[in-house]
Amino acid sequence: MSVLISIEEHFRLKNEIPLVDVRSPGEFEQGHIPGAVNIPLFDNEERAIVGTLFKQSGQQEAVLAGLEIAGRKMRQLAETGIKTARNKHITLHCWRGGMRSASMAWLFEINGIRCNILEGGYKSYRRYIREHFSLPYDFIVLGGMTGSGKSAILDRIEELGHQVLKLEKLAHHKGSAFGNLGETGQKTNEQFENDIFTSLFAFDPKKPVFVEDESRSIGRNIIPPELFENMSIGSLLVVDMEKTLRVGRLVEDYGKYTSRDLKDCVVKIGKRLGGQNVKTAIDALEEGNTAEAAEICLNYYDKTYNFGLSNKKNREIILFKTSSADASDNANGILALLKSKGLV
Questions:
Q1: Burial class (CB in 10 A: 0-12, 13-18, 19+), 144
Q2: Under DSSP, is residue 173 helix (H, G, I), strand (E, B) or coil?
Q3: What is the pLDDT of residues 192-221, one digit of tens each?
Q4: Between helices 150-159 and 327-340, what is the axis angle to 10°?
Q5: What single DSSP character describes residue 206?
Q6: Which pTM was predicted?
């Protein structure tokens, strides 16, 4: 007999009992609970057939069609469940914890697998995480002009034992016109939110969480509004690094990409740079002068950043002035400054 468990109970047991998502592959790709294994009762086409029958002919016809479809692959589903279970135990969910979960639980149980069913299914999980984003985390927001090495600084801060929420890493995008270079491609916004929650849930809410100063969107992904609001009231520390050092960092970070890739990115901000600046930057890239192209782009990004910072004048800003481009030096300096102010 399957057991209904809450979202909180699943999180308590997740390292012991595998989570199986029985929704279709398309639903799973749109968004899933990180760590879940997809064993779909219906594939995308089969789900569409059953759904259409439900709307046009009612529940009974849809259920009969579903039985006919599932019957052909019951052995395969059962074998996959047996391989996935740990100590003959598994947790299942579908969209709302309904018929698909119950059907798969029946199949697994007659094959000796104990089954939990997630109460309310994936829908309840989504509601739970949205509520979680509103919790009052103590954010320390790391800002600074493009090229200040903020992501590298956060890496060092994390290595020193502090909690860091890496939104750009979760978004698979570095947040600028050049942000998709070297990335694997962005997931859906729904999955972006799920991944953010997984990181946040692992943190101690009594300790500060470091996060990079971001706009609402990172590439195509949007930061959940509740979380963005929390970030906007967190302590803001701005890295103040002279332009020559930032140009050097950008050359180091982006010089590994082809001139074609870099030129394509320059064109994306062409209207903001102006025609002559675009031509000069592209000419510089073709000549292998990445530093000159970076300096031209920084003229635009610095203006944009200063404008954004001016809109935060009612917020306390902690300035960290540095003459070093070394991320470890800056991480140590930032932590010392924050410690002196009693923030870490």
A1: buried
A2: coil
A3: 999 999 999 999 999 999 999 999 999 999
A4: 70
A5: T
A6: 0.91
The string of pLDDT tens digits covering residues 153-190 is 999 999 999 999 999 999 999 988 888 888 888 999 99
44 vs 89, higher pLDDT: 89
Q: Which of 94, 115, 265, 297 is catalytic?
A: 94
Residue bearing tokens 């052995």:
75
Assess contact for 92 and 117: CB atoms under 8 A: yes
Residue 209's DSSP bridge partners are: 139, 163
- Give CA separation, 320 vs 17, 270, 329, 337, in Å: 46, 32, 12, 8
Residue 257 parent element (H or E): none
pLDDT at 271: 86
Inter-residue contact 171 to 218 (CB < 8 Å): yes
297 among known catalytic residues: no
β-pairing, 209-212 vs 163-165, is: parallel
